[in-house]
Design goal:
The protein has about 70 residues and is mainly α. α2 packs antiparallel against α3. The chain starts with 5 loop residues before the first helix and ends with a helix.
């Protein structure tokens, strides 16, 4: 599976009955990253899917940081 958006990450997490929504986009990204790490460590998430998610999360963190500086 190719994960290329935050929506895709949310859909992936939903398959594991994990819903992350705190009304704080930055906190959501941190919690998603932690949840994905736990899934990978438990052997439930393929390494390629994990790394695809990490790339999307890093890009979204950069986007949030840039939009906060404007």
């Amino acid at each position: 599976m190719r994960i290329d958006s935050i929506h895709g990450i949310r859909q992936l997490l939903l398959r594991y009955h994990s819903v992350i929504y705190t009304r704080d986009p930055e906190a959501d990204l941190i919690l998603m990253e932690e949840e994905l790490s736990m899934l990978k460590e438990a052997g439930l998430l393929e390494p390629n899917d994990y790394y695809d998610c990490k790339i999307v999360l890093q890009a979204e963190k950069r986007r949030l940081k840039e939009s906060n500086h404007e």
